[in-house]
Specification:
- This protein is an alpha+beta fold and about 90 residues long.
- The chain has a domain of about 60 residues: Orthogonal Bundle (Multidrug-efflux Transporter Regulator, Chain: A, Domain 2), CATH 1.10.1660.
- Helix content is about 40%, strand content about 20%.
- The chain has 3 helices and 3 strands, in the order E-H-H-E-E-H.
- A 3-stranded antiparallel beta sheet has the order 1-3-2.
- A hairpin with a 2-residue loop joins strand 2 and strand 3.
- The chain is globular.
Length: about 90
């Protein structure tokens, strides 16, 4: 694991980072998919400790860049058009 990407901290984060739950609501990705992208360093974020438990904080710009690239991939893909669905749909 890349320690620059994942840092345990007990202090509050600034507005550049959003919670995993907010990132899921924004992106429509499954929480486990987003966790995998964070672990692999595809989407940047940090692990923080809140209430004695680790929680992911997602770098908002990194998530937007990933989603922009995903839209290009899906628009250039041949065959049926599959769209990312939000969990609330």
């Amino acid at each position: 694991m890349d320690t620059a990407t994942q840092t345990k901290a007990t202090h509050p984060m600034n507005d550049d980072y959003i919670s995993l739950e907010a990132a899921v609501a924004t992106s429509g990705l499954h929480p486990n998919t987003l966790r995998r992208l964070l672990r692999e360093g595809i989407v940047r974020g940090r692990k923080t400790v809140i209430g004695g438990r680790p929680h992911w904080r997602v770098l908002n710009d990194s998530l937007r860049q990933y989603l922009a690239g995903a839209q290009v991939y899906w628009s250039e893909r041949r065959g049926p058009r599959l769209k990312l669905r939000r969990l609330s749909d």
